[in-house]
Amino acid sequence: LLELLSYLSPQHHVTSLVCASMVEGGAGVGKNHWIVWEGAPQTQNGEIDQTTAPEEKIVYSQMFSWGYVSHQVTRSYTLGQLVKDIYGGAVFSKIP
Fold this sequence. Notes:
The protein is mostly beta strands. The protein has two helices and six strands, in the order H-E-E-E-E-E-H-E. Strands 1, 2, 3, 4, 5 and 6 form a six-stranded antiparallel beta sheet that branches. A hairpin with a 2-residue loop joins strand 2 and strand 3.
């Protein structure tokens, strides 16, 4: 996840294939939803990094899903749950 998020910039779209249940209001199991990251997820201790504990709750994120950009990670989701529900990603160069 950290490697994927390292591409966040005005020049790139960073996408992830996820389980929709990690997105507020989503349902289902397995690989069933795409999101576009607009900002890195954060816990109460700041942006996630190599030292962030898996049990820390995600308190902020910016992603495009269901037609809008906002913090949409399901309430009380931990970093461990988030990582478990992300199945991969792709980075695209934005068209100028």
